[in-house]
Design goal:
Oligomer: single chain
Structural class: alpha+beta
Largest sheet: 4 strands, antiparallel
Helix content: 10-25%
Number of helices: 1
Distance between the termini: 89 Å
Low-confidence stretches: 24-30
Radius of gyration: 29 Å
Strand content: 25-35%
Mean pLDDT: 77
Shape: elongated
């Protein structure tokens, strides 16, 4: 009877220890300890030039903090790095203007960014006609 009581006591101690360990993990997961939930984030500001690693500042009530961010070097500066669009195929070449046009519909706005719902982009028409790829040299059968 005493052995059974001792095993029950050990099981309770083990259960209490694992519950306490789980609680500590949850507290560690919350890095800054902030209770604020309504963060307002600014744009990603690159450390140098106009792309690459940088930071964005956030504010919530009296609190503020910085997060690391990255601006791809091929981003469309006109739209901002935090606005993600789904683009349709390029339209035909306009003989009058010499440019092709396509539109993009807003897919996602990151960090509460102010984004346009629909954007239009243009590019010059190619003067070259793309030919079909030729067989690679040295790779064919002799």
């Amino acid at each position: 009877m005493q052995v059974r009581g001792l095993l029950l006591l050990l099981a309770l101690i083990l259960l209490a220890a694992t519950a306490e360990a789980g609680k500590n993990k949850k507290e560690k997961g919350k890095k800054d300890g902030s209770e604020c939930e309504d963060w307002r984030w600014g744009p990603c500001v690159p450390n140098s030039k106009d792309c690459g690693l940088g930071y964005r500042e956030g504010t919530c009530k009296d609190e503020s903090k910085k997060l690391k961010c990255k601006i791809p070097c091929n981003w469309k500066k006109k739209f901002g790095a935090d606005c993600k669009y789904k683009f349709e195929s390029w339209g035909g070449c306009s003989a009058q203007t010499g440019v092709k046009t396509r539109s993009g519909i807003l897919k996602k706005a990151l960090y509460n960014a102010q984004c346009e719902e629909i954007v239009y982009v243009t590019k010059p028409c190619s003067s070259k006609i793309k030919s079909k790829s030729k067989a690679k040299k040295g790779k064919g059968k002799d």
